[in-house]
Amino acid sequence: MVVPLLVKDLRKDYLVKGKVTSALRGLSLTASRPMILSILGRNGSGKTTFVKIATGQLIPGSGTVEIFGHDVISSPASVKGLISLVPQECRPWGHMTPREHIYHYQRILGNSREGARDRVQFISDMLRIGSFMDTEAVNLSGGQRQLIVVGMSLSAEADIYFLDEPTIGLDVITRKNVWEGIRYFRKLGKTIVLTTHYLDEASALSDEIAVVSEGRLLAQGTLQQLQNMLDYNTRIRIPAGFAKGSLEPYGKVVSESQYEILYTDEKRVEEIILSAGLLKTRIEIGPVGLDDVFISLVGGSIED
Amino acid sequence: MKTSIIRDIRAWQSFTMLNGLIPIFRRPLALVAILSTPLSFLFFVDIFSHGTQLLVGSIGGLIFTVINAATMLQSDLLFGKIDLKFQQMIATTGISPLVYVMGMATGDIVFILPGAIFFLGVIVYLTPVTVLDVALIIFAAFLTWVFFSLFSYMISRKVREMREIWPISVIFGIVFAVIPPIYYSLNSIPVPFQYFAYLVPTTFAALIIKDAVANSLGSLPIPLFVYFVETVLMVVFATRISDWRQQTI
Q: Nearest residue on chain A to B17, judged by CA atoms?
């Protein structure tokens, strides 16, 4: 079977003020079947550099990227038409309406006038943007403008969509509209590569999640697989300094700015509360989630 | 399956629409802004020459206006690349960079077209020209548009920030549309400077148009040949280097 996305040992250096900075240091990841693959990482972890290379806009130092068996590096033209992109921090043209954006993007892709109009209607319905389809982008909110670019990208009949932080700046309801759109394309058998800072978004949408840091892949798998990588299943959040030093015997302790987080086993919670005197303070107990996986792998929260 | 040519034509039309026809109807003030400088030059040339150099001023105005389109293209390409990230989206579509560039450049032609028609009209009004002369004038303007649009594309490839392009555009306009002998005769400058003037492609555009309006077609083949070859070389070079991808290190 031809794999939608296969990335091997990707390396990329930038020259910044005479100093070489490595953005990618041997990144490898795979979307082995049509899926939603979320790439999680802090700012500067190499996510956007990867997207630029995978979409044929940047030449890497070394490594390979294959999309459905086509080598993006040696023959970028072979993947055009297979891919579509929402670039990071992109904006629409201020003087054009959402309808014009999607229509002309369709025409640029080669669609007929009628086909382009049908596609505009389809995207308008899917993203529920009909109410402002004929308003110039300059008069729309930041979130509505972002939806225009998402709509343009999703209007392409591609096989793999690279969405680089597509929901940044969107309100909760609009984000969920975009999620629905992404899920719809997933059901059609498309592959979506999503970079995001939103852990809830990655948890809610992804078939698989890749955690990257400093240009390398730290882990990739389903949410469950990533959670299983942790030795603990329960998280206890305690105000910093409250039980200082007395928590280590019960599991792994990670310090945040105002809290300490104890990763432990749920069977030990009662014992910990009594032994560490935690009854005297407000604590939060819950199952480990993606944020805990991220903290465990990267060594700090995604917002740090 | 759509052929590549049909797709390229559709894409070209859309780039022209989004960079030319749609904004011109919604932001028509840009038309006035673009015409203001060459019309001002024409005004001063006319005043200071007591009307004797109106034709030369109009020839200069025509070339200046076409160069204006190329200058606008620099900003438009940069805006699409850096501010909007529109170019990144287009790069994934399979459209060649040159279709994108020339489609955007056609959009800019829409902005300068009224000015170009005005200056051409003044030239035709002031001198008895034949249809062939008019065709030669339009051809010279066309070569200027192609050459400098591709030149602007090359500049925009290297620029990384909008602020960088503003001084470049000003210098570009002065070097190619003010200093060379388009608003004055090549023979009015000392011979050594004339050699320097030949290094600037707009000199040949002016020579072609001046020869056409002077009905001295006998001296026309050399500048026409040189300018045509220069433009073809520019097209070949731009085609060879055109690539969406960046090699940053």
A: A104
Summary mean pLDDT of chain B: 92
Contact state of B14 with A89 under an 8 Å Cβ cutoff: no
**Which chain B residue shows the shortest CA-CA distance from A158?**
B93
CATH class, range A5-227: alpha beta
- Residue B247 covered by a domain: no
A206-240 per-position pLDDT tens digit: 999 999 999 999 999 999 999 988 888 899 988 88
Considering the domain boundaries, does residue B230 fall inside one? yes
SS3 letters for A16-73? ECCEEEEEEEEEEEEECCCCEEEEECCCCCCHHHHHHHHCCCECCCEEEEEECCEECC
Q: b/e string for A24-43 if b means 16 or more Cβ within 10 A?
A: bbebebbbeebbbbbbbbbe
What is the maximum span of chain B, computed from C-alpha positions, in angstroms? 63
Taking any CB pair shorter than 8 Å as contact, residues of chain B touching chain A are 2, 6-7, 10-11, 13-15, 17-18, 22-23, 26-27, 83-86, 88-95, 244-249
Q: Model confidence over A245-284: pLDDT tens digits? A: 788 888 888 887 788 888 888 888 888 888 877 777 888 8
Domain spans of chain A, in order of start: 5-227, 231-287
Inter-chain CB proximity B18 and A100 less than 8 Å:
yes
What range defines the domain where residue B87 resides? 7-241
Which residues of chain A from 106 to 145 reach within 8 Å of chain B, CB to CB? 107-111, 136
Helices (H), chain A: 47-54, 98-108, 113-127, 142-155, 172-187, 199-205, 223-229, 269-275, 290-298
At the second CATH level, the architecture of A231-287 is: 2-Layer Sandwich (3.30)
Q: What value of ipTM does the predicted structure carry?
A: 0.90
Closest Cα in chain B, distance from residue A189 (Å): 20
Number of domains in chain B: 1
CA distance B103 to chain A (A): 11
Q: Is residue B17 situated within a structural domain?
A: yes
pLDDT value of residue B1: 40
Report the predicted TM-score, pTM, of the whole model to 2 decimal places: 0.89
> Using one digit for the tens of pLDDT, what is the confidence trace for A190-202?
999 999 988 999 9
B198 within a domain of the structure (yes/no): yes
Tokens representing residue B12 in the block: 């070209």
Q: Could you tell me if A71 lies within 8 Å of chain B, comparing CB atoms?
A: no
- pLDDT (tens digit, 9 = 90+) per residue, B56-106? 999 999 999 999 999 999 999 999 999 999 999 999 988 999 999 999 999
